[in-house]
Amino acid sequence: MTRQRLEKGLVQVYTGDGKGKTSAAFGLALRAAGRGLKVYVIQFIKGGFDYGELYIVEKIPNLKLASFGRGKFVTEIPASEEDSKLAQEAFDIAKMVVKGGKYDVVVLDEVNVALNLKMISIDDVIDLIKSKPKHVELILTGRYAPMQIIDAADLVTEMKEVKHPYSQGVPPRKGIEY
Amino acid sequence: MTRQRLEKGLVQVYTGDGKGKTSAAFGLALRAAGRGLKVYVIQFIKGGFDYGELYIVEKIPNLKLASFGRGKFVTEIPASEEDSKLAQEAFDIAKMVVKGGKYDVVVLDEVNVALNLKMISIDDVIDLIKSKPKHVELILTGRYAPMQIIDAADLVTEMKEVKHPYSQGVPPRKGIEY
Questions:
Q1: Is there a contact between B105 and B28 (Cβ–Cβ < 8 Å)?
Q2: Which end of chain B is flanked by fewer CB atoms within 10 Å, N or C?
Q3: What residues of chain A lie within 8 A of the CB of B23, using their CB?
Q4: Which residues, numbered 85 to 124 in chain A, qualify as contacts with chain B under a Cβ-Cβ cut-off of 8 Å?
């Protein structure tokens, strides 16, 4: 049986200060994998940390995950040389995976944050978007998506925080927030 | 080994006209299941239709899915008697699952839509929220979350459509939109 491919892959962005950006990308990955599409999730910044998703991804056929990071969220500008090097490594893999065209859905998780921290070049990411194979769906997540990314995307959703218990002093919970 | 439970389960709402509400809930389900939490997803309205998620859910340990619907989205008010009956059935299961306390995370997918179409009673859902066992995380999705639901929730995220290709004439794609 020939594997189904997308006729036309789009560029999706999930941004905003609300919850659910990475979860939406993983939910989408699940759906695509369920259809037999090949999915590659590349995590910028986040890797090395203990996330609940990591424990189940290996059970899902058609889904591959690569994480680049030192186990904590980078928030300072300029980011350290080590963090920037990891982000650049993540982007190099992303470029290979997208251009290779073997994967139907490629998620660049938290790439917007890496862009905002100037860890990778916005021109490089725009180049990647413009030169992606037609059938590849590209999904970019992370708050503070730069305007150039929004302009280049086909579908943009902003996750807006309406109400959040962190501000009421609830710490992140294992299995829910991470 | 004793199974880990949440110390305090919250009530989360994903609403708004943007993409990613159901996906965020499924992504969260994935994370929770990866942690060994028991997850039950109940789909209002949506069931009976061919969704990509359905093909992979059975491969995920700790994740159970029940769908109630006739294979198409209900949009008319008043909803037909048959659709309303299915929604009420879904809610009855939801009540049992939540109150039983055996599941740590319960997702009521598209329940907000069922509420808006008056297929189930808002007072019943508020009652369920108020009487849920402390350790149960309850997640409600669907556009048009009623204000009473938002008031009763701990965490509310609005998925806001910033840019959407449907309006550019791109039809829903298998593996991505469903």
A1: yes
A2: N
A3: 23-28, 30-31
A4: 104-105
Architecture of domain A11-160: 3-Layer(aba) Sandwich (3.40)
Helical ranges in chain B per DSSP H: 21-34, 54-57, 81-100, 111-116, 122-131, 147-152
Q: What is the ipTM of this complex?
A: 0.87
Distance in angstroms (rounded) separating the CA atoms of residues A170 and B58: 32
List the structure tokens of A41. 């999730």
Best mutation target, B13, B143, B159, B170, to test chain A (most A CBs within 10 A): B159
Phi, psi for residue A97 in degrees, rounded to 5: -65, -45
Residues pairing with B66 in the sheet: B42
Residue B158: φ, ψ to 5° = -105, 120
Domains of chain B, by residue range, sit at: 11-161
CA dihedral for B22, B28, B33, B37, sign (positive or negative): negative
Task: Look up residue B169 and give its DSSP letter.
Answer: T
Confidence of residue B85 (pLDDT cuts 50, 70, 90): very high
Place of tokens 């503070």: A144
pTM of this structure: 0.91
Contact across the interface for B20 and A6, Cβ inside 8 Å: no
B135 in A contact zone (CB under 8 Å): no
Q: Is A155 within 8 Å of B164 when comparing Cβ atoms? A: yes
The model's pLDDT over A163-177, given as tens digits with 9 standing for 90+, comes to 987 666 778 888 988
Cross-chain residue pair B25–A27, CB shorter than 8 Å: yes
Instruction: Note the CATH number of domain B11-161.
Output: 3.40.50.300
Question: What is the distance between the alpha carbons of residues A164 and A171, in angstroms, rounded to a whole number?
Answer: 11
Query: What is the H or E stretch that residue B13 is in?
Result: strand B11-15
Which chain A residues are closer than 8 Å to B19 by Cβ?
12, 24, 155, 157
What backbone phi and psi angles, to 5 degrees, belong to A6? Answer: -75, 140
| CB burial of residue B103 (10 Å; 0-12, 13-18, 19+) | buried
CB atoms under 10 Å from CB of B147, counted, come to: 8
Phi and psi angles of residue B65, each rounded to the nearest 5 degrees, phi first? -130, 135
